[in-house]
Amino acid sequence: MSKIIEDLRTELISNADEKTKLSGERFFKEEVKLYGIKSALVSNIGKKHFKTIHAKDKSNIFSLCDELWQSGIMEEAFIACSWSYFVNKQYEPDDFDIFERWVNCYVSNWATCDTLCNHTVGSLVDMYPNLISGLKRWAGSENRWVKRASSVSLIIPARKGKFLDDIFEIADILHYDKDDMVQKGYGWMLKAASQAHQKEVFDYVFRKKSTMPRTSLRYAIEKMPSELKARAMAK
What we know:
Helix content: 55-70%
CATH class of the largest domain: Mainly Alpha
Protein backbone atom coordinates (compact mmCIF):
# COMPACT_ATOMS: atom_id res chain seq x y z
CA MET A 1 0.00 0.00 0.00
CA SER A 2 1.32 3.45 -0.89
CA LYS A 3 1.92 5.99 1.88
CA ILE A 4 -0.63 8.33 0.27
CA ILE A 5 -3.38 5.71 0.48
CA GLU A 6 -2.31 4.69 3.99
CA ASP A 7 -2.57 8.29 5.23
CA LEU A 8 -5.90 8.78 3.46
CA ARG A 9 -7.36 5.63 5.01
CA THR A 10 -6.16 6.62 8.46
CA GLU A 11 -8.08 9.89 8.19
CA LEU A 12 -11.17 8.20 6.77
CA ILE A 13 -11.19 5.67 9.62
CA SER A 14 -10.79 8.44 12.21
CA ASN A 15 -13.91 10.15 10.81
CA ALA A 16 -16.05 7.03 10.63
CA ASP A 17 -19.42 7.27 12.36
CA GLU A 18 -21.53 4.21 13.15
CA LYS A 19 -24.85 6.07 12.91
CA THR A 20 -23.95 7.43 9.45
CA LYS A 21 -22.79 3.95 8.42
CA LEU A 22 -26.06 2.29 9.43
CA SER A 23 -28.09 5.04 7.77
CA GLY A 24 -26.10 4.60 4.54
CA GLU A 25 -26.53 0.81 4.56
CA ARG A 26 -30.30 1.21 4.83
CA PHE A 27 -30.28 3.60 1.86
CA PHE A 28 -29.15 0.96 -0.66
CA LYS A 29 -30.90 -2.22 -1.77
CA GLU A 30 -27.49 -3.74 -2.51
CA GLU A 31 -25.00 -4.69 0.18
CA VAL A 32 -22.50 -1.84 0.53
CA LYS A 33 -19.27 -1.39 2.49
CA LEU A 34 -19.03 1.97 4.24
CA TYR A 35 -16.91 3.76 6.79
CA GLY A 36 -19.89 5.98 7.61
CA ILE A 37 -18.79 9.49 6.60
CA LYS A 38 -20.97 12.28 5.20
CA SER A 39 -20.33 12.92 1.50
CA ALA A 40 -19.20 16.54 1.95
CA LEU A 41 -16.52 15.46 4.40
CA VAL A 42 -15.40 12.63 2.10
CA SER A 43 -15.00 15.20 -0.68
CA ASN A 44 -12.94 17.51 1.53
CA ILE A 45 -10.69 14.68 2.73
CA GLY A 46 -10.18 13.53 -0.86
CA LYS A 47 -9.20 17.03 -2.02
CA LYS A 48 -6.85 17.50 0.93
CA HIS A 49 -4.92 14.28 0.23
CA PHE A 50 -4.87 14.89 -3.53
CA LYS A 51 -2.85 18.03 -2.83
CA THR A 52 -0.17 15.91 -1.12
CA ILE A 53 0.43 13.78 -4.22
CA HIS A 54 3.72 14.94 -5.69
CA ALA A 55 3.41 13.28 -9.12
CA LYS A 56 0.00 14.24 -10.44
CA ASP A 57 0.54 12.61 -13.81
CA LYS A 58 -2.43 10.62 -15.02
CA SER A 59 -0.84 7.17 -14.79
CA ASN A 60 0.12 7.69 -11.15
CA ILE A 61 -3.33 9.01 -10.26
CA PHE A 62 -5.09 6.14 -12.03
CA SER A 63 -2.86 3.67 -10.18
CA LEU A 64 -3.85 5.22 -6.85
CA CYS A 65 -7.49 5.13 -7.92
CA ASP A 66 -7.16 1.41 -8.60
CA GLU A 67 -5.93 0.92 -5.02
CA LEU A 68 -8.98 2.77 -3.74
CA TRP A 69 -11.47 0.91 -5.95
CA GLN A 70 -10.08 -2.45 -4.87
CA SER A 71 -11.10 -1.88 -1.25
CA GLY A 72 -14.79 -2.05 -2.19
CA ILE A 73 -15.52 0.73 0.33
CA MET A 74 -17.86 3.37 -1.01
CA GLU A 75 -16.10 6.42 0.41
CA GLU A 76 -12.84 5.27 -1.19
CA ALA A 77 -14.67 4.72 -4.49
CA PHE A 78 -16.00 8.30 -4.34
CA ILE A 79 -12.47 9.61 -3.83
CA ALA A 80 -11.23 7.47 -6.75
CA CYS A 81 -13.94 9.05 -8.92
CA SER A 82 -12.87 12.54 -7.84
CA TRP A 83 -9.16 11.96 -8.34
CA SER A 84 -9.68 10.46 -11.80
CA TYR A 85 -11.71 13.55 -12.76
CA PHE A 86 -9.13 15.99 -11.35
CA VAL A 87 -6.73 14.95 -14.15
CA ASN A 88 -9.31 15.30 -16.95
CA LYS A 89 -7.07 17.70 -18.89
CA GLN A 90 -4.68 14.76 -19.38
CA TYR A 91 -7.32 12.39 -20.76
CA GLU A 92 -6.62 10.43 -23.95
CA PRO A 93 -8.97 8.11 -25.87
CA ASP A 94 -7.28 4.94 -24.55
CA ASP A 95 -8.37 5.91 -21.02
CA PHE A 96 -11.80 4.58 -21.97
CA ASP A 97 -10.42 1.05 -21.51
CA ILE A 98 -9.40 1.87 -17.92
CA PHE A 99 -12.78 3.39 -17.08
CA GLU A 100 -14.55 0.45 -18.71
CA ARG A 101 -12.61 -1.93 -16.47
CA TRP A 102 -13.59 0.08 -13.39
CA VAL A 103 -17.27 -0.01 -14.37
CA ASN A 104 -17.15 -3.76 -15.05
CA CYS A 105 -15.04 -4.77 -12.05
CA TYR A 106 -15.83 -2.32 -9.26
CA VAL A 107 -19.14 -0.51 -9.75
CA SER A 108 -21.85 -2.29 -7.75
CA ASN A 109 -24.47 0.35 -6.94
CA TRP A 110 -26.07 3.43 -8.50
CA ALA A 111 -24.05 5.90 -6.42
CA THR A 112 -20.62 4.77 -7.59
CA CYS A 113 -21.96 4.28 -11.13
CA ASP A 114 -23.30 7.82 -11.35
CA THR A 115 -20.35 9.47 -9.59
CA LEU A 116 -17.84 7.86 -11.94
CA CYS A 117 -19.86 8.21 -15.12
CA ASN A 118 -21.37 11.70 -14.79
CA HIS A 119 -17.99 13.35 -14.57
CA THR A 120 -15.03 11.09 -15.38
CA VAL A 121 -16.51 9.05 -18.23
CA GLY A 122 -18.76 11.90 -19.37
CA SER A 123 -15.85 14.30 -19.68
CA LEU A 124 -13.80 11.79 -21.67
CA VAL A 125 -16.64 11.16 -24.12
CA ASP A 126 -17.28 14.90 -24.40
CA MET A 127 -13.63 15.34 -25.39
CA TYR A 128 -13.55 12.36 -27.77
CA PRO A 129 -17.05 11.85 -29.27
CA ASN A 130 -16.01 8.73 -31.19
CA LEU A 131 -15.99 6.94 -27.85
CA ILE A 132 -19.79 7.01 -27.81
CA SER A 133 -19.57 3.77 -29.79
CA GLY A 134 -18.21 2.26 -26.56
CA LEU A 135 -21.24 3.50 -24.62
CA LYS A 136 -23.54 1.88 -27.19
CA ARG A 137 -21.66 -1.37 -26.62
CA TRP A 138 -22.16 -0.94 -22.87
CA ALA A 139 -25.91 -0.56 -23.44
CA GLY A 140 -25.96 -4.15 -24.72
CA SER A 141 -24.19 -5.56 -21.65
CA GLU A 142 -25.67 -8.17 -19.29
CA ASN A 143 -24.38 -6.13 -16.31
CA ARG A 144 -27.04 -3.75 -14.96
CA TRP A 145 -24.47 -1.15 -13.89
CA VAL A 146 -22.69 -1.19 -17.25
CA LYS A 147 -26.08 -0.65 -18.92
CA ARG A 148 -26.90 2.23 -16.57
CA ALA A 149 -23.40 3.64 -17.18
CA SER A 150 -24.09 3.79 -20.92
CA SER A 151 -26.77 6.41 -20.33
CA VAL A 152 -25.65 8.32 -17.24
CA SER A 153 -22.27 9.00 -18.85
CA LEU A 154 -24.12 11.34 -21.24
CA ILE A 155 -26.03 13.38 -18.64
CA ILE A 156 -23.75 16.43 -18.66
CA PRO A 157 -23.14 16.50 -22.46
CA ALA A 158 -26.91 16.07 -22.89
CA ARG A 159 -27.59 19.17 -20.83
CA LYS A 160 -25.34 21.08 -23.22
CA GLY A 161 -27.45 19.90 -26.15
CA LYS A 162 -24.87 17.43 -27.45
CA PHE A 163 -25.18 13.95 -28.95
CA LEU A 164 -28.97 13.89 -29.34
CA ASP A 165 -29.04 11.19 -32.04
CA ASP A 166 -26.68 9.01 -29.98
CA ILE A 167 -28.84 9.54 -26.89
CA PHE A 168 -31.91 8.33 -28.77
CA GLU A 169 -29.94 5.33 -30.07
CA ILE A 170 -28.86 4.33 -26.54
CA ALA A 171 -32.43 4.84 -25.29
CA ASP A 172 -33.61 2.54 -28.09
CA ILE A 173 -31.15 -0.18 -27.03
CA LEU A 174 -32.28 0.09 -23.38
CA HIS A 175 -35.96 0.63 -24.21
CA TYR A 176 -37.40 -2.69 -23.05
CA ASP A 177 -35.02 -3.29 -20.14
CA LYS A 178 -36.89 -4.50 -17.05
CA ASP A 179 -34.30 -3.31 -14.48
CA ASP A 180 -35.49 -0.18 -12.69
CA MET A 181 -31.92 1.11 -12.30
CA VAL A 182 -31.48 0.95 -16.08
CA GLN A 183 -34.92 2.47 -16.70
CA LYS A 184 -34.19 5.38 -14.37
CA GLY A 185 -30.76 5.85 -15.97
CA TYR A 186 -31.95 6.26 -19.53
CA GLY A 187 -34.98 8.26 -18.43
CA TRP A 188 -32.60 10.65 -16.66
CA MET A 189 -30.50 10.88 -19.83
CA LEU A 190 -33.60 11.83 -21.86
CA LYS A 191 -34.62 14.38 -19.19
CA ALA A 192 -31.16 15.97 -19.42
CA ALA A 193 -31.44 16.10 -23.22
CA SER A 194 -34.86 17.76 -22.94
CA GLN A 195 -33.29 20.82 -21.34
CA ALA A 196 -31.85 21.79 -24.74
CA HIS A 197 -34.13 19.75 -27.04
CA GLN A 198 -37.56 19.68 -25.42
CA LYS A 199 -39.56 19.21 -28.62
CA GLU A 200 -37.35 16.44 -29.99
CA VAL A 201 -37.33 14.54 -26.69
CA PHE A 202 -41.09 14.95 -26.27
CA ASP A 203 -41.70 13.70 -29.81
CA TYR A 204 -39.42 10.72 -29.13
CA VAL A 205 -41.17 9.87 -25.85
CA PHE A 206 -44.63 10.34 -27.37
CA ARG A 207 -43.82 7.90 -30.19
CA LYS A 208 -42.51 5.34 -27.71
CA LYS A 209 -44.94 5.84 -24.82
CA SER A 210 -47.02 2.71 -25.44
CA THR A 211 -43.98 0.47 -24.87
CA MET A 212 -41.64 2.62 -22.77
CA PRO A 213 -41.56 1.62 -19.09
CA ARG A 214 -43.51 4.16 -17.02
CA THR A 215 -40.46 4.73 -14.83
CA SER A 216 -38.36 5.84 -17.81
CA LEU A 217 -41.21 7.92 -19.20
CA ARG A 218 -41.77 9.80 -15.92
CA TYR A 219 -38.08 10.60 -15.60
CA ALA A 220 -37.85 11.75 -19.23
CA ILE A 221 -40.70 14.28 -18.99
CA GLU A 222 -40.02 15.54 -15.47
CA LYS A 223 -38.80 19.00 -16.59
CA MET A 224 -41.49 19.50 -19.26
CA PRO A 225 -44.57 21.77 -19.02
CA SER A 226 -47.62 20.18 -17.38
CA GLU A 227 -49.59 19.99 -20.65
CA LEU A 228 -46.83 17.97 -22.32
CA LYS A 229 -46.56 15.72 -19.26
CA ALA A 230 -50.31 15.07 -19.43
CA ARG A 231 -50.13 14.17 -23.12
CA ALA A 232 -47.19 11.86 -22.58
CA MET A 233 -48.79 10.06 -19.62
CA ALA A 234 -52.25 9.68 -21.20
CA LYS A 235 -53.14 6.11 -22.12
